[in-house]
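seq as requested:
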Amino acid sequence: MKLLHISRGGTSTDITDLAVRFVWSGDASEVARKLEVSLVYSPHDHFLPKVFIDLGEMLMLLDEQGKELWRGYVFTKNRTLSGTEISYTAYDGLIYLKKSNIAKNFKQITAEAIAKLVCAEFQYPVGKLAATNVKQSFVHVGKTAYEAIMAAYTAASRRTGKTYMPRMREGKLEVIEKGATVAKRILTSATDLVEANFDETIDNMVNKVVIVGDKGEPVGKAEHQGWRAKYGLLQQVYSIEKNKDAKQAADAMLHGVDPTASVQLIGGPDAYDLIAGNAVRIEEEVTGLTGLFYIDNDTHTFENGQHTVSLNLNYRNTMDEFEAQETGAI
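struct tokens:
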């Protein structure tokens, strides 16, 4: 793994040897992948290379073959008077779409076309966008550029049955089908798993939904009788909305047991694709973690010549959903 600093003027400097540690991480719900770097620093050591990294400048990760894995922009830096390290936090380009609001009126266009329009406003290059072919219209005012893209893909997901996630690759925005890419490495306790944990919870369970009219009168329900009999009544109320199928909306509110898992493992060059949005196969019989799992978030830590990976996994392939402000023809 190689760490580069790209100055605002375009000068590239290899700072790998100055790095005490760096942590590369991502979360399907936090959008932008993050890099936290600590560099050795001493104003009094004249033999130590001096590298000035300004806010907004680029950091880049390359693999052992020199292929770009990630690029991002420095948003924070920290240095203390007595400390021997200087720390930086950088995010990939999605951070700008997450932090910038827009005002748009989208009329009868697809989610992929909406993503292109949003990126054009920010002069962002676009890579491969998952095709939905689902046309839609909505107004998006005072909310983020990221939410506009995900509101469009959320609506499309309900038609296609697929889940979607934005991702930056070599400076271009892509929207992938979440979970479609399976990591190359199969994780087993006999080879690389250091630890594995399995959890189940009914904290978010909803096994009955009462549908009510505009005066609060019950007009229908959605129910999972098996869950209710086994775990007790956990009920929500759904108020009928204009232009929405009430039964379908109530059915969508039903929610069962949430099984989750986490693993820690030894990294390596074949572990760079163990990132949020991808899937991974695990064969571990003690905890029951055997099968295909979806990576919700990942943390890759590089320190003292070692690469370790922590993953939080999901049995379900979920996406970061947003509702459009206004749907239907405009």
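Helices lie at 94-99, 111-121, 145-160, 225-231, 246-253.
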